[in-house]
Inverse folding.
């Protein structure tokens, strides 16, 4: 891993002064949140109209992605015109076992959703480097005016668990603004503070109550200007956050047996306290393990064109090559081909440190009217950009974000190896023992802990869960109490950024509202 | 290419090559042995000079990477050898410890600490393996199962 070093006084300006949440910064965050929320509600509307209400012909997933991105890109052109506004996360539709980064291009095989598919819509925007990301999980019900009944089974368990996690995490983060209201039961040795350990324990216990596991890679982290974890290939200086790994599930299993793995030499991340004035991004995926009779761990696997073929849960012919790319500014190389050079110039200018798709490079992006002719023009531009892409990609000037899927690995096969620790065993050897986890739910949202007003501003994630019923139930009094504190007059003050109206196809009104 | 002695020798090319290699050597030596003074821009205490570059530079120092995965594999032979030697080392240390207990003679502290941690670590690893095998073989998953509740939980609203 590489790391960027910045001059001391620049570092102070970039990392400290520029990250103080004052009125202007808060407004930028809220604008970003507003646009992301509108994009999300537009995407949900499109799914509802195409699949549930059937008032629109069904379009391929690739085209829906492009439409939502166009909507957000056009809105970004109209706010804070002097600053650098970007899409911080191209719209992804992660279907069933796919965990992240599935955002097909127009020239990929045509894919549509099926009834019963669990879809996670994932997107995000940045206004002047201040990022608001959002993910929401939906289910394709049978067509009709309304759902005939609630969704049941493991899929519902994961969605319900994530719904509670979303509320409780917001509440806990908000309690850092009003520490006097932290319930006595969860006060720790340090007194009235919200610690990372507390956040982690609460999230894990909710997941467990619904027979789910927190998927490795889930994160609760502080975001700063231009630093929202959009580039996993770089190590970030001053990272503050919780990131789940397989070792956490291992610890969970051992704690049930009354044991503790004292030999684990992996350095544990430093514990931290949530401080007012910070901006948090929460991205938690839970997967139900209801259908597995064996004891095991939920893990992830990165796919590519070749391994992707072996991992098809259905008869689809999805393209599992990376669709989303991100620039690596550390690498310097003089490209040989003229087309690659011009492509790199375009990338540096247009996307800076944020991820992008090939269709964003087209001159017809963002789409204006969503006509057939425009779609064809974007498709045509791929020939040119793909020509330049290979050289840029081969020299690591940009990195492709691999598509990840969820897998379940039985403990038995790990025990068969020489080491019990997941991090130590050769994961490649174990792949043959893994099976696909088809039920997951991802929710991600950003919150600003606004110190001046003593309130939590929830930038994204105002969507409620889909209609579903789990056979499990929360039985923890403290968690109930935390949920009740949220938005209560005597609890944590909460303001939510609402989605704007989409005036006509691909056009939105930028007018902010919070409540 | 014409030779060095020919009438149309590639003079320009040769000069360029030799120049390039000489400045290349200089550059390499500069990066190899740092010639920066104590008050360079990388010295955290130093105030920035007006002439200092403000551009972003590549950091070449050590980066701690706790989640490092090794790609080295032990050969069977080597692994056996290590395991065997470890056994002897432990036996010897245990003997030393026993001797020390009896004679109460001061021993180098290092060796004692090493022994203690070693024994503790191995025991716990074995214990964990044993416990996990027990669960896996006996299929006693009751403690890992959550039982459904009569009421369950319903969320969301019945509309699109």
């Amino acid at each position: 891993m590489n790391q960027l070093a910045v001059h001391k006084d620049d570092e102070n300006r970039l990392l400290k002064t520029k990250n103080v949440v004052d009125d202007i910064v808060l407004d930028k965050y809220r604008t970003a949140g507003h646009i992301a929320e509108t994009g999300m509600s537009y995407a949900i509307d499109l799914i509802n109209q195409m699949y549930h209400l059937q008032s629109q012909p069904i379009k391929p997933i690739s085209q829906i992605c492009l439409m939502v991105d166009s909507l957000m890109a056009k809105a970004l052109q109209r706010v804070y015109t002097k600053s650098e506004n970007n899409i911080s996360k191209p719209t992804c539709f992660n279907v069933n076992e796919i965990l992240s980064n599935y955002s097909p291009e127009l020239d990929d095989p045509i894919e549509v959703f099926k009834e019963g598919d669990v879809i996670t819509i994932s997107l995000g925007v940045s206004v002047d480097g201040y990022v608001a990301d959002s993910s929401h999980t939906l289910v394709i019900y049978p067509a009709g005016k309304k759902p005939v009944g609630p969704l049941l089974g493991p899929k519902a368990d994961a969605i319900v668990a994530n719904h509670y996690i979303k509320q409780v995490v917001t509440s806990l983060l908000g309690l850092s603004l009003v520490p006097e209201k932290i319930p006595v039961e969860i006060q720790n040795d340090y007194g009235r503070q919200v610690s990372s350990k507390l956040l982690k324990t609460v999230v894990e216990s909710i997941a467990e109550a619904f027979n789910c596991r927190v998927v490795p890679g889930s994160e609760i982290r502080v975001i700063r200007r231009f630093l929202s974890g959009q580039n996993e290939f770089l190590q970030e200086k001053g990272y503050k956050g919780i990131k789940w790994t397989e070792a956490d599930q291992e610890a969970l299993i051992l704690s049930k047996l009354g044991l503790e793995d004292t030999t684990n030499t992996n350095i544990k991340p430093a514990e931290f306290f949530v401080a007012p004035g910070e901006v948090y991004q929460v991205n938690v995926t839970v997967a139900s393990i209801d259908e597995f009779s064996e004891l095991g761990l939920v893990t992830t696997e990165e796919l590519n064109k070749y391994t992707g073929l072996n991992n098809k849960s259905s008869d689809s012919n999805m393209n599992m090559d990376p669709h989303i790319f991100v620039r690596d500014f550390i690498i310097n190389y003089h490209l040989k081909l003229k087309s690659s050079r011009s492509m790199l110039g375009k990338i540096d200018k247009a996307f800076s440190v944020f991820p992008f798709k090939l269709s964003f490079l087209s001159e017809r992006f963002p789409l204006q009217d969503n006509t057939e002719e425009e779609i064809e023009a974007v498709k045509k531009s791929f020939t040119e950009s793909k020509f330049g892409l290979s050289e840029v990609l081969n020299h690591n000037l940009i990195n492709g974000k691999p598509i990840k899927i969820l897998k379940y690995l039985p403990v038995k096969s790990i025990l068969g190896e020489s080491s019990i620790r997941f991090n130590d065993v050769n994961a490649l050897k174990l792949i043959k023992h893994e099976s696909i986890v088809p039920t997951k739910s991802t929710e991600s949202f950003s919150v600003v802990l606004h110190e001046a007003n003593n309130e939590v501003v929830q930038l994204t994630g105002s969507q409620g869960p889909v209609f579903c019923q789990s056979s499990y139930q929360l039985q923890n009094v403290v968690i109930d109490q935390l949920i009740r504190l949220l938005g209560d007059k005597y609890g944590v003050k909460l303001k939510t950024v609402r989605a704007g109206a989409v005036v006509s196809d691909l056009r939105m009104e930028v007018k902010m509202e919070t409540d | 290419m014409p030779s060095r002695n020919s009438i149309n020798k590639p003079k320009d090319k040769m000069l360029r090559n030799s120049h390039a290699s000489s400045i290349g050597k200089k550059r390499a030596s500069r990066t190899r042995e740092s010639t920066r003074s104590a008050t360079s821009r990388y010295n955290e205490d130093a105030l920035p000079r007006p002439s200092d570059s403000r551009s972003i530079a590549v950091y070449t120092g050590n980066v701690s990477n706790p989640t490092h995965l090794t790609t080295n594999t032990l050969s069977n032979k080597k692994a056996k050898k290590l395991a065997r030697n470890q056994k002897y080392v432990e036996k010897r240390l245990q003997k030393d410890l026993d001797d020390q207990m009896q004679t109460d003679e001061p021993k180098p502290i290092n060796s004692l600490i090493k022994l203690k941690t070693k024994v503790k670590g191995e025991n716990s690893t074995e214990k964990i393996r044993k416990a996990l095998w027990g669960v896996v073989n006996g299929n006693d998953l009751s403690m890992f199962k959550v039982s459904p509740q009569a009421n369950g939980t319903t969320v969301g609203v019945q509309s699109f």
